[in-house]
Design goal:
alpha/beta; Purple Acid Phosphatase, chain A, domain 2; six-stranded mixed β-sheet; four-stranded mixed β-sheet; 6 helices; binds fe (ii) ion
Length: 252
């Protein structure tokens, strides 16, 4: 099975009105794929479902799965954006998909938790303006809220990775890099890393050293690949606003 992974399509930069334009932007990237994984930042909340319909049409029957990024929540409250897509079978936050007899795919949205770098830098992110339950909060409340959300993401991941008997490989699809260094500049770390999810993966990987964990994410728009542990890799997908492209292709 040939799997393409992409992230940060930001299709609202292509069009939120002309379906043909969006479909034409997506079609070239799916050639030869058996499955497409999208690591979030597909659109913004107001046009998210419309863009997902475009993706479905562009793929013409090729299956795909996605998680939500921060931009997908813009114009919405955190948990309301989750509800917007909860009924879509392609939305795999909190889901575990059996890809082959010994390979599973799990999805978790993730959220930045300002646990690395200078927490004051969270004021640099527009999420504090456009995510409706982050704006109009003070710094203490914001930090408490984002850490609560990130902790909940980690909890979701721990639950779906609870039983790894019969599993040799786990693909994790998430929006935020779970470890720092995906950005060149540490000033971006506080709002670019979901440390809580990283801790969960590290802990589970150390307990299951016979299982390979490959984490695919986005958010920073910069390509970055690294081996985190002997049995853990991270691959951050390259992206340009409104220019869909495949960041990685793997075989399972
Ligand atoms: Fe993005
Ligand atoms: Fe993002």
């Amino acid at each position: 099975m040939k799997i393409g992974i992409c992230s940060d399509l930001h299709l609202n930069f292509v069009s939120s009105e002309y379906k043909g334009a969006v479909i034409n932007a997506i079609r070239p990237i799916i050639s030869g794929l058996d499955l497409l994984l999208i690591a979030g930042d597909i659109s913004t909340s107001i046009s998210l479902n419309w863009h997902l319909d475009c993706i479905t049409e562009a793929l013409g029957g090729i299956p795909y799965y996605f998680v939500l990024g921060n931009h997908d929540r813009w114009g919405s409250k955190y948990y309301d954006s989750h509800k917007l897509v909860a009924r879509r079978p392609e939305y795999i936050h909190g889901q575990r998909i059996q890809l082959t007899p010994d390979t599973i795919l799990v999805g978790v949205n993730g959220w930045f938790d300002a646990m690395v770098g200078d927490p004051q830098r969270i004021y640099d992110t527009n999420d504090l303006v456009y995510v409706n339950d982050l704006c109009e909060q003070n710094g203490v409340t914001i930090r408490a809220r984002i850490r609560e959300w990130a902790a909940e993401e980690a909890k979701v991941l721990r639950k779906i990775l609870g039983d790894l008997s019969c599993v040799k490989r786990v693909l994790v699809l998430t929006h935020y890099p779970p470890w720092a260094n995906a950005n060149d500049d540490p000033k971006y770390y506080p709002w670019s890393v979901c440390v809580a999810v990283g801790k969960a993966i590290t802990e589970i990987a150390l307990q299951n050293q016979g299982v390979q964990f490959d984490v695919f994410c986005g958010h920073t728009h910069h390509k970055w690949e690294s081996k985190v542990l002997d049995n853990v890799t991270i691959s951050v997908q390259i992206a340009e606003y409104g220019e869909p492209q495949i960041g990685s292709i793997i075989e399972v």
